[in-house]
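User: Fold both of these, please.

Assistant: Here is the first one.
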Amino acid sequence: VTSTRAFNRTACPPVASARSARARRFPPSARLVTPPASPPPASKRRAPRKSRPFPSQLPMSLKVAHSSSDPAQRPFEFVESLLCKENVEKGITDHFFEGKPQLFDKYWDSLKEHELRSFFHDKFGKTVLRENRPFSFVVYGASGYTGKLVLDYIYEHVKGLGTEVTFALAGRTPSKLHDRVAEIAEKFPASTYRPEIIQADIDDAKAIRLLCLKARCVLNVAGPFMNTNAHLLVQACIDFDCDYVDVNGEVPFTHKLIQQHDYAKKQGVIIVPNAAGAGGLPDLAAFYAASELRKKTLADVGKMHTFMHGNGGVPSGGTLATRAAMTKAMSKVAKIMGDPFALGGAVGDGKRLEDSDKVLNKIEHHADFDGWSGPFTYAFYDTRLIRRTNWLLMDLGEDPYGLRFNYSEHLLFPDEASAKAAASANTSSKKEEEKLKAEGKLYALGQGLDDETRGKLFCDYYVNVEAEDGVSLRAKISAGDGYDETARVSVETALLLSTKRDSLPFVGGVLTPAVAGGQLLIDAVSATGIKFEVLPDDFKVDFGKVTERVA
């Protein structure tokens, strides 16, 4: 607007539907892995590994998707919703006219320009320096199942609550959050710190702005994300200098967020979707394996294959709701869901057979494990996220895993029959719910496995990685139940952003957990329970460890 009197007189705009993204090729000059023209300060970047020779021309290139000719342009959807007619008129009426609309209509023109400028600055534009904000982070949506596990993790593992670390809970219904705090008080009586409760509806732009100004980071655990205005919360975080973390496992939603990557990078705000057991933990496993391989060779990573083996698990009500939401929207998001490079990182034209989703459905014997691979539901998500990590490392001025990098992921079984049985069990979300109901394991929204059952669950990640010069390495990541790991990865990511940001490798962008946190995040989750290790070449999986499924 050119004048404070020319505020938006239209009604608050509806939230736009997800837009399809078009792949954008790198220009020829950007196909080499070289640092950007204006790199971030040395103190803000990870120290590069030893240089290695690069050919003058490369037959392959990495690509990322953008939907705008100017990807760093500011997204205005949140600002428009903040400055819509209803918000501005109500704000002026409350501030100048004692909340009486009739006085606004009568005396609006009597307001001085300097009065309006001061009003707009204070009510819509004023910010608060990060170091002056009262909370390290705010958890949005803590009344649900994942929110409960996040709070349990905070009180079990986070040190210095109330002194070094402060946090608040935010959501639409304060009474539910007060109930959650009461549960925490009963479960952790030794802790005297109680988080503040903030009423904030994600559809209320004014409330979201104030939420961002109270914290250095927002941790959003309110899904399904496709069904909310979470993308507007992300825009608000970028506009008001507040980092953002979420636990989403939805390709279409993450695809929507990555369109803000260049703007977030320009503003120096870090956005980390997918900080969860699904997506985030495999991402860290891949980062660890690639880092260990680089200690043995300077060659690019050619291929990486992750195998997962555990003793069970049951989807929470929230997970089922997310799957149902994606199924319902399939006609709109099918193209995005079916694109192996929906989050970027395509090699060449993106049509290599080894990168296709067909590979993820394979059932075959693997002699190095003396076991069989089978399809894994979340492989269709994890693979896309890890390919984005590969691209981000190049975009931010570091060496990617490899310019011809290939990543695949499967479950691991002791025999062919078990692998085929698991593959046949992959059905529609409706049939899955019917099966869970028959087994007495169908959870409603906000519900999931109890603490005792989750405590018996484990999931091991076996990563085989090979460089283009033939040097290989095998790694193992030992973890627990996926929902507990979601709490761990998300909270530790939020803690790094809010308390150790100056030590992180990069300063802004829509990043993956591995790129945002790097080795610091691996160290953090290792300190509270996840084990990362390099395996001997002749290692074999002990399938006898699983005598029966726990859940």
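And the second sequence with its predicted structure:
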Amino acid sequence: ARTNLRASQYCDIRSAYLESLSFLKQGLALLDDEKKWSDNYDLSLDLTESLARKNLIVGNLEECKALNKEVALRAKTSDTICKFFLLEADVHIAADDLSGLISAGIQAINKLGLTRFLLNKPAMALCAFFKAAKVGKQLDKTTNEEILELPHSEDSSLSTTIFILNRLSTLGVLKQQYLLGAYCTFLAMELTITKGLCPSTPEVFNLYAAFDLHYYRGEGRRWPRLNGLAIKLLKKFSFKRADCHTLPSLAITSFYRKRRIHEIFAFYPHALKDGYEKGDIVSLATCASLLFNAEVWMDESLPLLEKKFRATYVQMKELGHSKVAMPIEPVIQLVLNMQNENGSRDELILLNGEIMNERKFLSDCPVNKESFQRLFFLLLKLYLAYTFDFYDLAEDMFQKVLAVTNFFMEKSFLHFPFRLYMAMTSYEKYRRTGNKKYLKIPRKVLKRFAREHCLGNPNAYPYFKVLEMEDISISSSTSDPIKLFMAIDSSIKAQAGYGFTHLEALAHERASHLLLPFDRESAKRHYDYAMHIYNKKWGATAKYKIMQEEGANIFTIEESDSKQVHDVGEIKVSLSTPPVSISTAD
């Protein structure tokens, strides 16, 4: 039995959880059912605890619950009780069961005795208000150095209580129960400041920063400091016990407002790797869904993203976690669609194919329309519909998102691509109908992007310049196009160095389109060339092929050619005339 336990631990190091599960079952079967707890208590406990955790990892939730209850019945120490509470919380999260998590969480928190949890909503709201004021004052009086030098608590009751509060807060936010999320975060922060640091402390600071950002609409004074502290605290604790989704949460909620979104992505491979090694499928799924749905808008090529996304998806599917893998299915299918050189426009706007089926995905989504799986899906559908000229469908997608007040689309980095393509769709609807009501949304978005840029957000400028060019094209007169030419030139230059390849392609595509009413064929052709360069650089071969077929008599793009060549990265573009840059003089 001990040999089987050691073999399962060896498998865990390599994330071979199905094999580990088999060894644990064999080991437990070798012990006498009637005498194992009296004759081999420690071994029986280790095998049962490990087997319960492995059943969670491979998706056998009922078996996990049964084994975990046995652990609770046989527990002799507070550490064992804490392990029971931790696993029970993870089971409810894996089942997307907030009410079950609340019930189990209250029982665990009140039994551990470090704080008192109130479930009554009016009492919770009042308590949250006073806790926020108290904790805020404590944070303001404490320097960063003092926080980082707080003692590391070895009390398992403290780390368990804070872990459960973090889980309640996170799931509460995902379920749009912001009062519950804020209340749990304030309780956790109070415990951290008064009792000491633990492995889940970085997530406490991350969540507190997110709520500060949400409440003060980005103008609060605490959230930048708390984000910085969360990053520093992560260096004190391994991801294996620190909730590996902390960094993605930082990146897409508030960290992007002070630093370029690309800077933090280097941490993610470690977070994903350690999530697998620990077997924390809940954190792993959260990390992967937030990371992948943000990373698709970065500068990494789609083929490389496909390889990365597939590896995670396959591993989660092999472990039997179809449900927790759902949030990453649409983004993987989108990456595949954008590389599909044989698809028609009608096919490419559908998230159907190897990874998922739209209709089945929506039927399997949680019934609440605010679920982040559904919102990620709508954002990606909006992008596809706009990209392939289905503007009525695109408008339907963004109206569905606007009907929901959701944290991810309001306060995270994802609001940039969402609002950009929402605004671009509205501009196109105005051009086709002449109805000025369609200008209301994009001009509101334009002001928001401008405001974020003025507040120092380093990711806002390229998005703002694309919309500014579009808006000027509508307001400027065709008889006096100088202002438009300057806006186009400014928008193209603004994209350089920001690392948003899809925006570079879009800016050049719109520049070419906006020059149609003018006799500027050479400049238009230059932007056509550049648009296809950046689409190919990004890996969006579906868009590239469709546009190439529509303009085959104007340009060709090849890997190498004996004609004059213009280099962008490693892509070579065959030009029939020298490229020209547009300027005020033109």
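The longest helix spans residues 121-141.
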